[in-house]
Design goal:
Helix content is 33%, strand content 30%. By secondary structure, the protein is an alpha/beta fold. The chain has one domain: Rossmann fold (3-Layer(aba) Sandwich). It has a 6-stranded mixed β-sheet with strand order 6-7-8-3-9-10, with helices on both faces. Helix 3 runs parallel beside helix 5 and helix 4 crosses helix 5. The radius of gyration is 17 Å and the shape is globular. The protein starts with a strand and ends with a strand.
Length: 229
């Protein structure tokens, strides 16, 4: 594995039980993500984008194939080992936000960084909240926020933990065009300033075209790739 490669999949296949039959969600996917690279994953709903993110992030175990992260076979770890590794190295921005309803927004933003025991300060939380336009929502509970505000809180939580790889599932999906552009700028800044790698699933080809590489996926297979550098 080359020194500049952060993660890669080899012949990655994921099958789901669908009644009496199996549904092949990923079909032999080979994908490489380099350190400090911003990659977009483009495809229609049901094409396999979310499944690929979840497999790379260790949330689901592939049916076959391998996932290698920093030269380590991630897919062959035990569930406990995967949890610890994921906590320390991988961040998620989920479509459904996954905020903890019993915690306020400040506590939610801190949550992932605290789990991985990374040092954070209140000033860091306030700064990223300000960048995302939710600095006046930190004492609120998730249920008191709009969908777009919850999305921005989820993005702040993922970025504050400073993961090596950030997996973002439609991070601009609940935002208007202006706020979507600001999120893209923030993700780009995370890549350039923190050497973070980002793999973003999106329907928005305008935003995808702003990334280093566009990966087109269809029926669980990568069908095309475009370098934007």
């Amino acid at each position: 594995m080359s020194d500049d490669i952060l993660a890669e999949t080899r012949s990655l296949t994921v099958d789901f039980l669908n009644g009496p039959d199996f549904l092949r969600a990923l079909d032999g996917v080979d994908l490489t993500i380099h350190k400090g690279e911003f990659v977009s994953l483009v495809g229609v709903s049901g094409s396999g984008k979310t499944t690929l993110l979840n497999a790379i992030g260790g949330l689901i175990v592939p049916t076959s194939g391998s996932i290698i992260f920093n030269s380590i076979r991630f897919d062959s770890m035990s569930e406990e080992e995967r949890t610890i590794f994921r906590r320390n190295h991988i961040g998620f921005i989920f479509q459904n936000f996954n905020l903890i309803p019993s915690l306020n927004i400040f506590q939610n933003i801190c949550f992932s960084a605290q789990l991985s025991q990374k040092p954070i300060t209140a000033q860091q939380v306030e700064k990223i909240a300000q960048q995302l336009g939710i600095e006046d929502k930190l004492s609120r509970m998730p249920a008191e926020l709009s969908g777009g505000q919850q999305q921005r809180a989820a993005i702040a939580r993922a970025m504050l933990a400073r993961p090596s790889l950030l997996l973002a599932d439609e991070p601009t999906g609940s935002l208007d065009s202006l706020n979507g552009k600001s999120i893209m700028q923030l993700l780009r800044k995370a890549v350039s300033e923190n050497n973070m790698s980002v793999l973003m699933a999106t329907h928005n080809e305008e935003f995808a075209s702003q990334t280093d590489r566009m990966i087109h996926i269809e029926d669980g297979k990568i069908i095309a790739e475009e370098s934007r550098k």
